[in-house]
Task: inverse folding
């Protein structure tokens, strides 16, 4: 029974992430990853999008039987990028001039 409940919660969380991603993409909010970066107007736009496109169309319990929904503004694509090793930031390469200058200066510490 607990395994079924856990699978159900994972499914509902996936639905929420997909819905958040849809609304972020539809409202040009793809760079927002936290509601701290949103003013009241953007929060209302997100709430309206979720309500009109998911809750009213697919049922008020589409995200589960809850009185309150907490949305962290991370869509399914945002979460996937968090776990994708291919998108890890890499250290920038130094320009060729900097590398050459470092090679020329190497070993000159003894000269005065």
Result:
């Amino acid at each position: 029974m607990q395994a079924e409940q856990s699978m159900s919660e994972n499914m509902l969380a996936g639905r929420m992430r997909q819905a958040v991603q849809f609304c972020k993409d539809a409202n040009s909010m793809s760079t927002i990853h936290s509601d701290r970066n949103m003013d009241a107007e953007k929060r209302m736009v997100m709430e309206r999008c979720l309500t009109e496109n998911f809750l009213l169309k697919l049922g008020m319990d589409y995200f589960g039987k809850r009185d309150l929904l907490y949305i962290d503004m991370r869509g399914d694509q945002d979460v996937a990028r968090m776990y994708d090793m291919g998108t890890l930031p890499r250290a920038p390469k130094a320009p060729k001039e900097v590398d050459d200058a470092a090679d020329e200066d190497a070993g000159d510490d003894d000269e005065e």
